Amino acid sequence: MIKKATPVVLLLAVTACSTPIERRQVNGTEDYINASTQSLLTIPEGLDTPRYSEEYQVPEIGKQAQNSPVGKQLDIRPPLQVLPMAEGTRVEEGSDNIKIVVESIDNQTNLKQEIYDDVVAYLNKKSIAIRSQDFDSGVVETDWIETSEVVETSLWGSDKEYVLRQRYMFTVDVKPHGRTGDLKIDLIEHEEVFDEEIQQILLTSDDKRRYTIDMLNNAIAYVSVNREKALREARIKRSLGIQLELVNPTEDEGAYWMAHAPFENAWDRLRIVLPEMGFEIIDMDKSKGLYYISLDDSGGFWSSLWGDDALELDKGNYRLVLEEANETDKTKLMFRTVDNEPVDDGAVVEVYDKLAELMEEDRKVR
């Protein structure tokens, strides 16, 4: 007996996903757009008109909303949020772009150079080609940034691919004083291609903000890492001891101290050291390099410091003046009376030992 062969049917599956264009659109038909308003019931003469509820009444479209997108043109995606920012930065949103306001974290660093270098380094790290760049104008333009996604696969033919192509412009602008600046990000070219056909997409301001926020979050994450690294390096640098040299009096001026460190480092270290020596900081003016300090008690601390020897420093108010020296990375420290007269050379020499010890001490980084 010959058995009949049962044919085997092979079901070849075709995988299809929604395109990024479809993901931003509402599901279903657009019949509601063309829905007409039904007229009220015609009430015969002599009968009462029933009460109508206005709970579900659709209001008239205002002038500002008449050109708003409807149906498939409406983007239903939730807005993107700006992620936590880097140290010393904040965000200002424009109609079509995002601006990052950046504050200087180190007076010895060129802020424009820092921001510009971070932008170029970020693009290089992400293998994003740069079409043009100009440091003087602070402008960096990317080449096309292309991302693709297979949204439909087939065993019989080629896959259908969705391609997003964009170009961005980064603009760095620093204020003349150099302490603050901003980085502006603009989307300058945009193309969407599905199955090798360019899609006619009209970008709204919301669309442009969405894309620039996405680019911002990636860029600022890179800037944040670099800023945190720079801050830690600065903390380590400030924590290192500063050599202090006693300069003997000459015919032109009295004795003073020379700190082997830039003004900024010497200034920051003195804010810690002066209270440790028993001086109270009454006021300060960094622009003039001036500390107003007071010594209220020459006993106690000074007794333990100097023993039975008399200290040639009376209690009262004094000035400590910092001045950038002619030599590179050195700061001159001049100890003066409240009337801005030089303190006796003997007191300057006596105070030097303890001041030098505290200035040269390495501090723990926090």
Protein model, in words:
It is built from six helices and 14 strands. It is an alpha+beta fold. The strands form two sheets. Strands 1, 2, 3, 4, 5, 6, 7 and 8 form an eight-stranded antiparallel β-sheet that branches. Strands 9-10-14-13-12-11 form a six-stranded antiparallel β-sheet, with helices on one face. Strand 13 (316-324) and strand 14 form a beta hairpin. 16% of the residues are buried.
C-alpha termini separation: 91 Å
Rough outline: elongated
Q: Number of DSSP strands?
A: 14
Summarize the biggest pleated sheet: 8 strands, antiparallel
- Class by alpha and beta content: alpha+beta
What's the helical proportion of residues?
A: 10-25%
Strand-helix topology:
Elements: H1 20-23, E1 89-93, E2 97-103, H2 111-125, E3 130-134, E4 139-142, E5 145-152, E6 160-174, E7 180-194, E8 197-198, H3 205-239, E9 244-247, E10 256-259, H4 263-276, E11 280-285, E12 290-295, H5 301-306, E13 316-324, E14 331-337, H6 345-359
Antiparallel strand pairs: 1-2, 2-7, 3-4, 4-6, 5-6, 6-7, 7-8, 9-10, 10-14, 11-12, 12-13, 13-14
